[in-house]
């Protein structure tokens, strides 16, 4: 059937905005071909809420509407406006008309998007009140009498009170369509014939408005939810899919056995929900149809599927028998799908997910959908896409048993995708501003499971790290309340919201636990999950008010102040505390100041966040005002002289809080000496652990031989006396982690050392490490950090932090004599080397102790950062790292060394880059020492370059995990090339960016090309921009767009200014007067964008490449939006257009004969101006009047100056008189000019 004739709609029309009806059910039939052509039907069941409904408005993009009926009748009219149809401008348009495209795409990029399809109801269709209540059930639409006649009917009506009912005539809207461009909704992961890639297709998720409506007509909004019945028709085998791509037939099968086995692989339809039908087409055995139903109300955004030759892995086999008995019928099926050959990786990667599903089902609420599936696919972006009962993940998350580095973060990602099923798909925010509570609750539950899986120390350590990161990021940003409506602005908005929201819930949970004795947030979240499952939560909408009301019930106090500060307010408090012991009053006087309002506002822009700043500027997103005061209770823990910790709760109400904390110890200070510590340690072996004193951590390397061998420095007698004179051991602010804050407590170093050794909380230990790391280089501090690193009883995160802190003490200042470097090398030799006299041999790798492996990598990284007083890496550091890289032996190790080698390569590169400035050749002619030094340095650099290149080549014959060898080696070579060490051309990196290479390797190569002077290489720039829209992989397009944005950011901020080439002239032209301009461009987005337009606005190659990318026929909305953002940054908007007119040509005449003359235009162009004949008019003649007869109307007017240019007839003989009236009738085309 041909496409229906439709009218255009205006988005401002009130018909589009008004919706007085409820979507109840939608049936979708999709016929998916791997030639990327999709056709189907959409059948919507709609219950009017008002008898005056005149139109149905839907979202439908990039499709052709072929037929529409409403209750079996043709609609009165149909109006359809596809935003894609308006993306083309006139022929002579340029990038400077980007604002025109922005205006055209505006309605499609808002959230929710404007509807594109308006269906006017037939005039003979009357919406009347029903005599029966029409009820939508899983089996269809049924009717029941409006007035109950008996008790059973009354009970039935009461049972149906919460179901979807219609008191007016239901509307059945049927739409037949086909889609010709589904890049925004579906991704076809295919390759050219013979590439070996498995063809598959899957739904795409994300925050792009209108993504699902690019596949089929629907109400594409989070808040229009209904039940679904979906039928999908697709190829039955891999061979059938390939033939759809190439246009072949089943008779074209290859006789090769391997090829036949490849093509005979069955295609699996991954469809979450209850499978209702699965049949092979009787007329075409190459096609198969699978039908399924989703009986819970979900939005169109959460309907997804995948088709491919997947292998099914039943993760329920990992379920505990005890949990299975507890769950019984609530034990939801959980499976994973992967491409052939990756079953073992899936089993290893998804091992904890079954336990997580059962944990949430037992602790909080049963799983809300029929089953849950992970589907691992190629080309998918980093963040998993969550649909009802399905999480589509990228195959880059998979890792074998031999890889241990990514295990924890991958598990966290998969568990977060699982909790999103309850909170995010089944339960949604009531309004966009409530996103923080839904997303934060999902992330909070995921962190609680990770706490049970990895331990309390890991959990506390991560919470402290996240808190420190938020304190750095949450400056001049919107609040998490406002950020819920800004997720479509920039991807980092979601990342920040997902980071801060669970931490806000965490500190609220800590405050509740302090007040009532036990945490309650997870219990409250579980109640909402249970309500939604039992249909007690209205429309499954969760609001901030609902959350606060539930919290106040258990807390018996208002949480409005907390919500206003931490949710609706932005920023984090920055505390500076001082204390003094008052012996007369026996109190500790403390002063706590908040200084967050004093943070400078003119800080330099970060190139990593520049694109987010620009997008927020464009969308009018403003930072929340700084909060001068955060209020609430804070716990101060004071470890007094007898070793007893005393907790004191103070109220923070002002910017400056002064308190007097009572001192409890009344007796002489019981300071422990070394001998007392040894006796206590011996007594602890026999006494109860709780009675033993805590002096245990960091007490390694205590013998005299060890102290001498490790060059350890102990506390001096003066230090001991000072410590003995103190009235307390140490003070800790916010001991119960009830604040997300940056705290500076001015406390002596020996108190931080005591806290590091005696406090069992890893958060307190990390605070001590961070404080000690700021002290000047010294032997004593280095010895304390060394003992911390060598004591295996410390949490591994504390040991790695101590290794990083030792870098500061690898200096000659204050008599340190590079003691930090000695301690780091000595620790590595002790832990990982065999010493035989003066010979030190590195032992073969053994990563069976994973905690020791993490410390080993941290030591390597710390050694690579060691610098002398001139900022140059010592030669011994380079030789040490080169030796460990050259003699790395992984033959006896059951685990992969890819990440360890990557750490070595990066460390060696860091050391090579920290070299001194080489003097000119003429300055070293007579300096033999300098000549010898630089000759040795250059020889060492050549050896290091060869070793780095050796690992790059290793991936060519034995592939490392995710090509980590090659990726790291390329990054190192690029950094060394920019520093003038080694010379690798752009072609060296460009060969790895070719299609067909591993995606992560390609992206690394593109990142290298973008980080160099991309805008100086026209052909590379043109290819880079082309792949930003033309690459088949969404992951590659996303990575390239991000890399290009960072390249623009560095140029805008002045970090990548064109300079003299390496090896060229040493002269560098510097505009001294531009220094103030450079500072202005780094402090404001406006100044940076202005500088960017000035420097790149006339770049012809860039302008051409961006315009071609904007007009790329296969580009999706995301791609076009990114290109428009770049154009807005680079070019001023201009309202102009070129008008092309034909050149005037001479006429030629040809005598045909018989009184006929033929006139035609010649090919000769008229180049001279045609002189107009002007008659002689007497100066005494009066001005003639010109009578124009335009159709039926006449106008009389005096001759105007413009009329003087018209040819004047010859004057008649005789005296000059008033000219006669002239009637002139002008006709243009077929109608008179004067016609109205």
UniProtKB/TrEMBL annotation:
| Keyword hit for Nucleus | yes
Where are the coiled-coil regions?
A: none
Region entry Disordered: which residue ranges? Answer: 1175-1236
Q: Which domain of life is it from?
A: Eukaryota
A single Pfam family it belongs to is TPR_TAF2_C
Domain Transcription initiation factor TFIID subunit 2 Ig-like, residue spans: 570-748
Q: Keyword check for Cell inner membrane, yes or no.
A: no
Q: Which InterPro entries does this entry report, sorted A to Z?
A: Aminopeptidase_N-like_N_sf (IPR042097), Ig-like_TAF2 (IPR057345), Peptidase_M4/M1_CTD_sf (IPR027268), TAF2 (IPR037813), TPR_TAF2_C (IPR057991)
Q: Which UniProt key words apply to this protein?
A: Nucleus, Transcription, Transcription regulation
Query: Can you say where in the cell this protein is located?
Result: Nucleus
Chief location of this protein within or outside the cell: nucleus
- Where's the Transcription initiation factor TFIID subunit 2 TPR repeats domain? 751-1039
- Biased amino acid composition, Low complexity: 1194-1206
Family listed: Belongs to the TAF2 family.
Q: What is this protein called?
A: Transcription initiation factor TFIID subunit 2
Q: Which gene encodes it?
A: taf2
């Amino acid at each position: 059937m041909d496409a229906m004739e439709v009218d255009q709609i205006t988005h401002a029309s009130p018909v589009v905005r008004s919706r007085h009806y409820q979507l109840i059910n939608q049936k979708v039939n999709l016929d998916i071909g791997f030639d990327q052509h999709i056709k189907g039907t959409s059948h919507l069941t709609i219950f009017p809420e008002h008898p005056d409904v005149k139109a149905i408005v839907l979202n439908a993009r990039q499709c052709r509407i072929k037929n529409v009926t409403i209750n079996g009748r043709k609609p009165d009219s149909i109006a359809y406006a596809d935003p894609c149809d308006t993306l083309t401008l006139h022929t002579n348009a340029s990038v400077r008309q980007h604002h025109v495209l922005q205006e055209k795409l505006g309605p499609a990029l808002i959230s929710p998007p404007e509807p594109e399809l308006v269906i006017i109801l037939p005039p003979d269709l009357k919406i009347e009140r029903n005599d029966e209540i029409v009820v939508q059930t899983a089996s269809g639409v049924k009717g029941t009498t409006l007035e109950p006649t008996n008790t059973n009917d009354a009970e039935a009506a009461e049972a149906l009170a919460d179901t979807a009912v219609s008191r007016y005539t239901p509307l059945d809207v049927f739409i037949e369509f086909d889609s010709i461009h589904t890049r925004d909704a579906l991704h076809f992961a295919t390759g050219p014939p013979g590439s070996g890639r498995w063809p598959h297709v899957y739904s795409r998720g994300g925050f792009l408005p209108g993504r699902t409506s690019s596949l089929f007509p629907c109400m594409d909004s989070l808040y229009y939810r209904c039940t679904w019945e979906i039928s999908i028709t697709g190829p039955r085998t891999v061979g059938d899919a390939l033939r759809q791509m190439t246009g072949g037939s089943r008779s074209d099968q290859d006789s090769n056995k391997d090829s036949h086995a490849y093509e005979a692989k069955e295609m699996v339809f991954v469809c979450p929900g209850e499978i209702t039908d699965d049949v092979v087409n009787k007329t075409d055995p190459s096609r198969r149809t699978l039908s399924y139903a989703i009986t819970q109300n979900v939005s169109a955004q959460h309907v997804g599927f995948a088709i491919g030759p997947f292998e099914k892995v039943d993760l329920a086999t990992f379920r505990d028998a005890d949990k299975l008995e507890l769950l019984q019928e609530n034990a939801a099926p959980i499976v994973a799908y992967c491409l052939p050959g990756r079953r073992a990786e899936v089993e290893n990667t998804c091992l904890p997910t079954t336990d997580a599903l059962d944990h949430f089902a037992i602790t909080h609420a049963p799983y809300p959908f029929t089953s849950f599936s992970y589907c691992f696919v190629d080309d998918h972006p980093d963040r998993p896409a969550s649909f009802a009962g399905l999480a589509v993940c990228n195959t880059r998350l998979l890792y074998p048993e031999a890889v241990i580095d990514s295990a924890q973060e991958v598990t966290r990602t998969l568990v977060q995708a699982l909790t999103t099923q309850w909170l995010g798909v089944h339960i949604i925010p009531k309004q966009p501003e409530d996103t923080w509570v839904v997303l934060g609750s999902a992330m909070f539950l995921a962190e609680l499971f990770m706490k049970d899986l990895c331990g309390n120390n890991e959990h506390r350590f991560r919470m402290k790290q996240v808190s420190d990161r938020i304190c750095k990021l949450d400056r001049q940003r919107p609040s998490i309340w406002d950020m819920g409506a800004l997720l479509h602005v920039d991807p980092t908005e979601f990342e920040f919201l997902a980071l801060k929201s669970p931490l806000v819930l965490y500190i609220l949970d800590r405050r509740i636990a302090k007040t009532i004795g036990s945490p309650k947030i997870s219990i409250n979240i579980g109640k909402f999950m249970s309500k939604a499952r039992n249909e007690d939560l209205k429309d499954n909408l969760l609001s901030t008010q609902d959350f606060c009301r539930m919290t106040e019930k258990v807390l018996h106090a208002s949480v409005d102040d907390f919500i206003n500060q931490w949710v609706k307010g932005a920023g984090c408090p920055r505390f500076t505390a001082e204390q003094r012991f008052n012996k007369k009053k026996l109190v500790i006087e403390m002063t706590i100041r908040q200084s967050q309002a004093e943070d400078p506002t003119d800080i330099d822009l970060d190139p990593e966040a520049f694109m987010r700043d620009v997008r927020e500027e464009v969308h009018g997103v403003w930072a929340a005002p700084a909060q001068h005061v955060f209020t609430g209770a804070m716990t101060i823990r004071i470890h007094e002289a007898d070793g007893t910790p005393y907790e004191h709760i103070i109220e923070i109400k002002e910017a400056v809080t002064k308190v007097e904390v009572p001192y409890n110890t009344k007796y002489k200070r019981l300071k422990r000496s070394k001998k007392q510590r040894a006796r206590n340690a011996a007594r602890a072996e026999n006494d109860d652990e709780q009675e033993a004193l805590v002096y245990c951590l960091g007490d390694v390397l205590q013998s005299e031989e060890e102290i001498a061998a490790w060059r350890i420095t102990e506390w001096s007698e003066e230090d001991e006396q000072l410590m003995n004179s103190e009235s307390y051991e140490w003070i800790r602010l916010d001991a119960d982690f009830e604040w997300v804050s940056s705290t500076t407590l001015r406390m002596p170093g020996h108190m931080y050392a005591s806290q590091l050794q005696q406090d069992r909380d890893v958060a307190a230990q990390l605070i001590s490490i961070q404080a000690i790391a700021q002290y000047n280089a010294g032997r004593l501090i280095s010895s304390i950090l060394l003992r911390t690193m060598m004591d295996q009883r410390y949490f591994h995160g504390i040991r790695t932090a101590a290794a990083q802190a030792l870098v500061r003490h690898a200096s000659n200042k204050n008599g340190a004599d590079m003691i930090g470097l000695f301690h780091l090398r000595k620790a590595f030799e002790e832990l990982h080397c065999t010493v035989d006299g003066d010979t030190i041999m590195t032992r073969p790798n053994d990563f069976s102790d994973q905690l020791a492996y993490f410390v080993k990598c941290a030591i390597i990284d710390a050694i690579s950062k060691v610098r002398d007083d001139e900022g140059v890496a010592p030669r011994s550091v380079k030789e040490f790292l080169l030796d460990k890289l050259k003699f790395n032996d992984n033959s006896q190790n059951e685990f992969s060394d890819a990440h360890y080698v990557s750490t070595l390569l990066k460390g060696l590169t860091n050391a090579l880059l920290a070299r001194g400035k080489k003097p000119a050749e003429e300055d070293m002619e007579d300096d033999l020492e300098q000549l010898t030094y630089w000759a040795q340095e250059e020889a060492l650099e050549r050896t290091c370059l060869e070793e780095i290149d050796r690992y790059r080549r290793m991936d060519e014959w034995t592939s490392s995990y995710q090509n980590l060898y090659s990726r790291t080696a390329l990054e190192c070579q690029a950094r060394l090339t920019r520093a003038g060490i080694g010379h690798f051309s752009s072609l060296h990196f460009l060969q790895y960016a070719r299609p067909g290479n591993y995606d992560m390797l390609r992206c690394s190569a593109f990142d290298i090309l973008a980080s160099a002077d991309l805008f100086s290489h026209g052909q590379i720039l043109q290819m880079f921009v082309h792949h930003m829209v033309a690459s088949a992989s969404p992951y590659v397009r996303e990575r390239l767009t991000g890399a290009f944005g960072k390249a623009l950011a560095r140029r805008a901020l002045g970090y990548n200014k064109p300079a003299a080439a390496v090896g060229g002239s040493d002269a560098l032209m510097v505009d001294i007067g531009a220094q103030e301009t450079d500072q202005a461009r780094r402090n404001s987005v406006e100044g940076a964008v202005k500088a960017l337009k000035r420097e790149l606005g006339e770049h012809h190659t860039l302008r051409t490449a961006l315009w071609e990318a904007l007009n790329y026929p296969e580009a999706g909305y995301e791609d076009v939006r990114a290109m428009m953002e770049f154009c807005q940054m680079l070019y001023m908007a201009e309202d102009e257009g070129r008008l092309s007119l034909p050149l005037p040509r001479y006429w030629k005449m040809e005598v045909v004969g018989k009184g006929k003359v033929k006139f035609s235009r010649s090919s000769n162009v008229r180049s001279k101006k045609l002189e107009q004949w002007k008659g002689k008019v007497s100066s005494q003649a009066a001005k003639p009047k010109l009578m124009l007869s335009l159709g039926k109307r006449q106008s009389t007017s005096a001759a105007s100056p413009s009329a003087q240019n018209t040819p004047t007839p010859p004057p008649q003989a005789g005296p000059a008189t008033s000219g006669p009236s002239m009637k002139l009738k002008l006709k243009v085309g077929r109608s008179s000019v004067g016609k109205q």
